[in-house]
Amino acid sequence: MSKNLLIVESPAKAKTIEKYLGKDYSVLSSFGHIRDLPKKGMSVDLKNNFEPTYAVSSDKKKTVAALRKAAKQAEMIWLASDEDREGEAIAWHLYEALKLTPKNTRRITFNEITKPAVSKAIENPREIDQDLVDAQQARRVLDRIVGYELSPLLWRKVQAGLSAGRVQSVAVRLVVERERELQAFESESTYGVSGEFRVDNSTLLPAKLKSDLKDEAAARTFVKHAEKATFNVKDIQTKDGTRNPGPPFTTSTLQQTASSVLGMSPKQTMMLAQRLYESGHITYMRTDSLNLSDQALGQAKDVIIKKFGADHYKRRVFKSKSKGAQEAHEAIRPTNLAKDVAGNDERQKKLYQLIRSRTLSSQMSPAKLERKTLTVAISEREEVFEAKGEVVTFAGFLAMALRAKDDVILPEVKIGQELAAESILAVEKLSRGPTRFTEASLIKKLEELGIGRPSTFAPTIGTIQDRNYVEKADVEGEIRKSTNFVLNKGDYKEEEAELKVGNDSNKLIPTSVALIVTDFLVKHFQEVTDYDFTAKLEQEFDDIATGDKKWRQVLSDFYKPFHKDVEEAMNVSRQEASQARELGNDPKSGKPVIARLGRFGPMVQIGSAEDEEKPQFASIPESHTLETVTLDIALKMFELPRTVGKTTEGEEIIANRGRFGPYVKFGKIYVNIKGEDPFTITEETALKLIAAHKDKLAKQHIKSFNGGIDIKDGRYGPYVTDGKTNAKIPKDVEPSELTLEEAKKLLEERAKKPTRKRKTKRKKK
Q1: Which residues are catalytic?
Q2: How many Cα neighbours within 13 Å face the side chain of 199?
Q3: What is the pTM assigned to this prediction?
C-alpha cells in the first residue's frame, strides 16, 4: 500500500487525480457521502439540543470497510472532497467514520483538477473547517425536522404520501402564485400593424406602426385610409451604441443559459458539468462567484489577442452580488482556455464550448453598433411607422459569442422621400399575462430571492417534479375568431383568421395537489413559506459557515415557533385542509356534488359516505382544477363510461376517462385515445384505434411458451413476461432462441430483485 491515501468523492475524479500523483499516492473514492441521517425516523434528538444520529448507509458499508483498511496501511490520509459545505461535511464524516486522528490526517481542496492545482493543495493542507461542517449540519437537520413534522401532517389532512420541504415548498409556492396570476389576468385586445413600402423597383422597406390600434374598428378605419394615403420618410435617426459581454458563469447562470441555448435541463447541465470537472476540463461547477484567477485572466488575454487581435481584448473584473459567494473561489471556467474542444461526448463538448465562449467573451472589448431608425409618416394621420436597423461596426466580444445577431440593414432613403405602400396588414393581438416559469427562470427567481444556494437549485427543481407538485407540460390554447385587415398592392380586403389564446409549451404548471398544499402551508405555516424568511435562513447558514452564529441556536430559534404551528394545525379538519367544496346538487338524485382531492388526484363525487347508497365518483378533466371545475362540468363527467359500439368479435367498446387520460376498453384490453374526446368518439374511430393497438401488440410479440410466458419487444428492448413479472433479456442473447427453462430462470431472478416505482406525468391540456 502507498504511503499516502487520498480520498475523493467520485471514481472519475480519482482516476483523473491518479494521473498527476506518483507511486507514493493511492487515490480512492468514497462515492459521495458515506454517512447521513438514516432514512427511517427523524434521527434528531430534539430534547438533546438537536443532536443528530448519523449512520453509514447500507450501500456504503463495503466502501467504508475498504477505506478503513486502506487508511490503516497508509502513513498519511488526505481528505480531498469538494471545497463547498457539502464537501467539507463529506470530509468530516470520513474523518469520524474511519476513526482518523489529527496526526495522520490532512484536508485539502482545489477548484480545478489539474496537476498544478492538486500539487499546490498538497503543499498547503489545512484542518477540517468545523464552521462549514456546522453550516451543512444546520441545513440538513433543519430540513429533516421540517420534512418529518410537516409531511405526516399533510398525510392526515390532505393526502397520503405527500411531502413538504423548506425550499421545495417555497419553490412550489412561486409556481402556484404565478399560475394564479395568469388565471386572474384579463387579456386586452389591440391591433398591430405592419407594412412594406417600396423604395424603388427592387427594394422594400419593412416597418411597423409605432403604436398599436385600440380595437377592430380603429384597425379597419386605418387600413381603409391607407388605401388612398401617401407615405413619406419623416425622419432618419442614426446613433452609435455599444453592447457589453456578460460575466463568466455561475451555477445559476450556466443552468439558465444551457437551457435557452442548448435545451438542457438544470439536472442534465449539472451532470455534464460534473463530468467535465472530474475529467479536469473545467473548474468546480457549484459556485456563485464571478471571480477569475490571475492565471485564467492571463490565459484569456493570450487566447483573445492571438485569435482576434489586441483591439478585441479588455480586462474585466466582475464582483458577485451574492452574500454567500465567499465559499467559492472562482466562476465556472475551462482549466485551459487554449483548449477549444473538451469532453467525452457531443453534449459535454457543447457545454464546454458554451463555458469557454462565455469565459473568453467576458474579457473582450464591447461590440460597437450603428443603430438607425426611419420614421414613415402617413398623410392626414398622426400615427407613424418605424423601421429599425442595426449594424455591427466592430464585433468585439460578439466575435466569440455563439449566437451573434445578423445585421439588419435598412435601404438608403432621404427625408421627404415618398414611398409606395406595397402591403399593410393589421392583425389582432392579445396582451399576455405573467409568463409561466421554465426550469431555468424558476432557478433565476430563487436566486433573486436569495432562496437556496448553487448546490440546491437543480435538486429542488427535480424534487418538486418527482413529487408530483409541478409538471413540465404543454398547455393547449383556445381558438377564437378574428379578422385581419389587408391592403395588398392597393387592394383592400378583410380576412377571417384564428387567434390562439393561452397556448404554452414546456412550462412548469402546478398540479391540484400543489394548489391545495400551498394554500394549507401558507395559511398555517406562514414563516416556512415566506420568501424573506426562507432567504433569512439561508443567510443564517452563511453566518454559521463564517463562524458568526452557532448552528444549534439557529435551529432552536426556528423550531420553537415552527413546532407550535404544527400542533395548532393538527386541529384543522381534513375537509378544510383539502379544500373540498360543494358545487351544487345533482338534478336527478338531489344529492350534493362535491369536488375534492382523491387518492389519484382531483375528483368529483355525487353523495357522501354517510348516505345509504355508495357515492358516485368521477375524475376531473385535465383542463380543469378543483378551483375551476363547475357543476355543469362535474355532471358531464358522470355520463361516462359510455358505450361506443362493438368490435368485429361482438365485444362492447366502452369509452371512459381514467387516471392516465381518456381510453376505450373492450374485454380486458385498454386502448389510450389521447387526442380524442370520450364523449364524442365514434365507433369507426374507436375501431381504427383498436386495430392500430392490436397491430402494435402483434409487432411486439416475438415468441410464446405454454403456461402463459411470452417474449416481447418493448420500449426498452426485448423482455420475457408471465403477465405479472417482466425480465429484461441480456443483449448477448437472441430473444427468439431463448428456451422455456431460460425464460423461467430470468423471471425467477427478476422476481427476487426489488421493484422500482415509476411516476407517471400527465400533460395539462
Answers
A1: 284
A2: 16
A3: 0.81
